[in-house]
Design goal:
About 25% of the residues lie in helices and about 25% in strands. It has about 220 residues and is α+β, with helices and mostly antiparallel strands. The protein has an eight-stranded mixed beta sheet, sandwiched between helices. The protein starts with 12 loop residues before the first helix and ends with a helix.
Length: about 220
């Protein structure tokens, strides 16, 4: 997979913020993809007290959600934990894991944010832009924005609004459970990001992509 908009990773936080402000101009938040046959969950964990980054990618057939490929990569953690800059801490290992995949996915579902981010450039935007692949963010918590009441039914959602801009959806993936936070990352609209997330969600709160990737990223060391 050829990397687009390649950049150095040995940046400090101030330089990383400037880069986000530059790269966010290239993010596409409209549908720009063909038929989906595979989707991938992306998640990152840490080992050895945070000194080792462990990235996991789980590729599933779509819409059957049958697993077809997986990859795990470990590398020394080279960027500090800074809210809003997690992609600089996590993506080097994710890109390394991508190199091990035999099946490259048509779309990424990232554990984190897309444009629901202070600078409209969360990890789903960053990964989608670098790989020129549609991507969306599935967050378990809110980073920015406000929203109204979310209907307590599967598929009910409310707009997530930040600085008078709709940046995501607060989605009830199952009745009676806390909602999740969906936002476009690259080459996908908000409505499609919600629809794909629901199509990847079975009887659990989180989509199967996220669940499988999380299991790989946080399971026993292999």
């Amino acid at each position: 997979m050829k990397i687009q908009h390649a950049h150095p990773w040995d940046l400090g936080p101030a330089e990383a913020i400037l880069l986000q402000r530059d790269l966010c101009r290239y993010v596409i938040t409209e549908d720009d993809y063909g038929p989906l046959t595979t989707v991938a969950g992306v998640d990152v964990g840490f080992e050895d007290g945070g000194r080792i980054t462990r990235a996991a990618i789980a590729v599933l057939e779509y819409p059957s959600l049958q697993p077809v490929d997986r990859a795990i990569a470990r590398r020394p953690t080279s960027f500090p934990y800074v809210p809003g800059l997690l992609s600089f801490r996590e993506l080097p290992a994710v890109l390394q894991a991508l190199e091990s995949l035999a099946t490259l996915p048509d779309l990424f579902l990232c554990d984190g944010q897309g444009i629901a981010h202070p600078r409209r450039f969360g990890i789903a935007c960053h990964l989608g832009l670098l790989t020129d692949t549609p991507a969306l963010g599935v967050g378990k918590s809110r980073l920015v924005g406000r929203h109204g009441e979310v209907p307590d039914e599967r598929g009910g959602w409310a707009e997530l609004i930040h600085k008078d801009e709709v940046v995501g959806a607060v989605l009830r993936s199952r009745a009676g459970v806390k909602p999740i936070y969906i936002s476009p990352g690259h080459r996908i609209s908000l409505a499609s990001a919600v629809a794909v997330t629901l199509a990847c969600t079975t009887r659990y709160k989180l989509p199967e992509t996220t669940r499988l990737a999380h299991r790989l990223a946080s399971g026993p060391a292999a």
